[in-house]
Amino acid sequence: MRLLDVDTLKLHEFMGYHIPKYQYAILSHTWAEGEVSLQELEAGSGPSKQGYEKIVLTCEQAKRHGYRWAWVDTCCIDKTSSAELSEAINSMYQWYKESAVCYAYLTDVDNSFPYASPSKEGGYEPLVSRWFTRAWTLQELIAPSNIIFYGPGWVKIGELSEERIQDSLLQITRIPKSVISSQKSSLSHYSVTQKMSWAADRSSTRTEDIAYSLLGLFDINMPLLYGEGPKAFVRLQEEILKETDDHSLLCWTVPRFSPRVGTLEGVFAKSPDDFTESGNVVGNLYDAGSPSVMTNRGLQIHVHLRKLEYGIHSHLYFGNPATASYHAGLNAGYYENDKCVAQMSIVLIRTPPVAPRSSRLTNKYARLTMPTLERRSLGWFDSDEAMDQIYMNKTLLSWEQDRFGFGGVHLQNIPIAETLAPFSTSKRDICAPDIIDESSFQIENVRYSILSMERGNTYQTIKSLPWAMTWSQVYGCVKFDVELPQLPEFPYFVVFVAKHSYSTRTYFISLVWNGEYFHFSVRPAETQSNAFFRSLLDPSDPSTQQGNCWDMYGEIAMASMVIHGENPSKLDFILEREDPDNDEGEVAGNRLHFLIRAEIDKERNNMQVRRRGPS
Questions:
Q1: Sign of torsion, CA 256 261 262 266?
Q2: Per-domain residue ranges for the chain?
Q3: Residue partners of 230: CB distance under 8 A and separation at least 6
Q4: pTM for the model
């Protein structure tokens, strides 16, 4: 550890037991242009840099307080040495903890602590000081027992021991007073997710520093690998799991309007921001009896699994074996007023078998991201039942990462031929009451494209469409690989080719839409001629309606087919846009999920369509 002599501003190096613990002052600040490096200080060029003033002010203040030594991160670490930088970052929490006093220098605060001084342009909402938004200053707030806050010109704001300062810090940081007061309680009293929640909404110049700045908070040591990017935070979580079996680490969410909602991810969070809502979660409700271990199959963990059956109004409809969903009860609880009021749960999707028509279920699961914490009443999971040992994927293969894409066209209860969905077990094996009998009716082919307007107001298909839609053999749906733009002149076109065993006819289930009209019909294949393409999105066609599908939710169209033959029957096909505001569509986000289901000889009332209001 290098320390500055407050009289000479010369650097002195101390090793091991020779470090003068609790005899030096330490600076906490946010970096700006013109900071002084170790090399510049030793070369004598430091006084020409803008950052030299804070070094001088720190040393002068330390001298007035009777300390001989001071530490400033800009000039006391040789950042040209990766080995020294790694050692310093792994030691920094301890250095702040063992300081006699920490000077927190908030250059943007006058008399408005903890808010930044109003800008000349004015503003309606006061902004918190930049010092509270940086990743590194979190440990610099928690580790020292004695902090004095200074504003511009080194004007004293207050001390950590003052009640008003503690109240302001609690309001801004959500960190309990017992952690930031001068009489600190041990960090071991707080769960992993509570500490992660304190780090939410903070940023750093280097992505990796989001993780590296938390090493001391979790008492973790690990090598630094600048260039690994977001993997650093994943690696930190792995290291934490080696030290604790605290399941609260898995209790994270994603913002409600994030494109991540309802997608599949690995077991670990992307950043501390995912723990914003997790400050009341505590782990280790009971002795699980078995460890959680990272393996080459993912995280091996013991949980209580309970089947989650999404209904037919969800693209995760439980009749589709490729979307088998489960509640996983974690060894963690939600606390209110120091009392556990609920057990924490997460939603998992079982990874489908990778062999065609395999009858052996996999024991690997992906995490379904949710915008809210899943809380279950105590006793909802049967504690008397043996827990399931499962594997949660650390990372997902590319096909599973985008398994649900940006939406799609889903065949809810309609059987699909094995040639189209070879990686899915037969739907007739699923005990779902809505499934149509595949021995009499099934989808045998699918076509999809974009249509272009030709002369004479007719449409022709654009055959190449690899960037927009694909057929998912695993999931059994047309998947949107991108967020489809609304292009009135280029409608989207999906047609399913269906056959019924009681009829020699082939039927086309057709869906065409743009931002102004949509067409949904079920017609014999022989009628799908040039006349059919001319009628697409023509308002005079009874199967074409005016409306923007992007702004519609719920049931939006219906088409029927009559099966002639030995046993005449009638099938109604209902087109629905999955609604994120109802319980079954909670993981739809704002993606464009079309759901098509079939009903046999069923009277239906007028369909209720919900249109999105002005935003």
A1: negative
A2: 2-185, 264-398, 407-611
A3: 207, 270, 271
A4: 0.88
